[in-house]
Specification:
Blueprint (H helix, E strand, L loop, with lengths): L9 E4 L12 H15 L8 H12 L2 H7 L6 H8 L3 H4 L4 H8 L6 E5 L4 H11 L7 E3 L1 H4 L7 H11 L7 E5 L2 H9 L3 E5 L13 E3 L19
Parallel strand pairs: 1-2, 1-4, 2-3, 4-5, 5-6
Length: 227
Amino acid sequence: MNAYNKNFSVLLFDLDGTLYDINNGYIENQKKKIFNFLISKNISSEIHVNEYWNSIFSKYNQTLRGLQEEGHIIDEAEYWKFIRQDMSKYLKNDSKLQVFLSNLPKGQKKYIFTNCNEKEAEECLRCIGIDHLFDGIYGASFMNGKCKPEKEVFHQIVDTIGIKDYSKYCFFEDSVKNLDVAKSMGMGCVLIDSNNKFQNPHIYDCVTSTLSNEKGLVTEFPKLYLS
């Protein structure tokens, strides 16, 4: 059988910047909350907080993990609650996204695959009105100290779901480095590039500015709809 004709069994969706617009203000709000958290815990001074955050995030790909790796004792529940507050101010019911997700082949399992904590990820999905359309959430607790783009967490999620053929997975993500790993492992990849900046197609099968599209990806990525 031609590889193109193989349908996807599992769809993995990133959360931030993938299921809502990266420019809607919520991610910027999270960053401000992270800075406030670092200052309030005397981890960094106000004048150096941006530099400090950039250094740990670029090294560890997740702020909480970076803080823990650097030896800070952090109450994880407090951290996630603090930085993820105000989501209802930025995330609204998205009927077009609901249509896109609902129109995908019924046999495909859909999961959230995010570096965010599961509880807060679920709250985000409820704000958008799509929590009922997913079969589960794999987030920070599931990764247990690891995070995307480490290959270990991709292997972990595949082992947990139980479908060992990586070509049966399609990953929706706005992070190029995360997609690069998924593509190297044989997954289908859809890049959400709301700013239309990325032009390197070797790491994705399809690029779209948003998933909030009533027509979905029928024209751009017909393989997604094979059942």
